[in-house]
Design a protein that fits this description.
By secondary structure, the protein is of the alpha+beta class. It has helices at residues 2-21, 36-51; strands spanning 57-61, 66-75, 80-82, 85-94, 100-109, 115-125, 128-129, 131-133, 139-141. The protein has two domains: 1-31; 33-141, no CATH class. It is globular and about 40 Å long. The termini are far apart. The model is unreliable at 3-28 (pLDDT under 50).
């Protein structure tokens, strides 16, 4: 009878450990689903943090080989998944030439297990797309 009680206690302890850590061996949070609100919040924090007090977000444009100084117009309220990362977009206006840029922000876990904005890319400039996503969520350059 004692063996059965100890087995039950051990099972309950394992279940409690699993519930609080995500696994019996610990959790780096990579197995849990990221919510839309988490993704949007991380993007908003990234953009406002990088924009700083002057509210200017800077991104390198590899096509023209220059840094663009941008003003935030709008951050989208939707999230999609592509290439194993979550992403959403923001609209920005270039302060030097008034072009409107559509920038994709990719959120996921880095190699240390921390959740954050992993990458960003200029999706379009002045309404002209630089890439699109195929049916499997892969980024295809134009």
């Amino acid at each position: 009878m004692r063996k059965i009680i100890y087995a039950i206690i051990l099972c309950v302890a394992a279940l409690v450990l699993y519930q609080f850590t995500g696994s019996a061996q610990g959790n780096n949070n990579q197995s849990t689903e990221i919510t839309q609100q988490e993704v949007l919040s991380l993007i908003r924090s990234h953009v406002t943090g990088k924009a700083g007090m002057n509210n200017v977000y800077t991104i390198y444009d590899p096509l023209y080989k220059l840094n663009r100084r941008l003003q935030i117009l709008r951050l989208e309220n939707w999230v999609r998944k592509a290439d194993g990362k979550y992403y959403s977009r923001g609209l920005f206006q270039d302060l030097d030439n008034n072009e409107v840029l559509d920038i994709d922000f990719y959120v996921g876990y880095n190699d240390k297990g921390a959740l954050g904005v992993l990458d960003k890319s200029i999706h379009s400039v002045g309404g002209k797309a630089r890439y699109y996503y195929d049916g499997e969520g892969k980024k295809i350059p134009l």
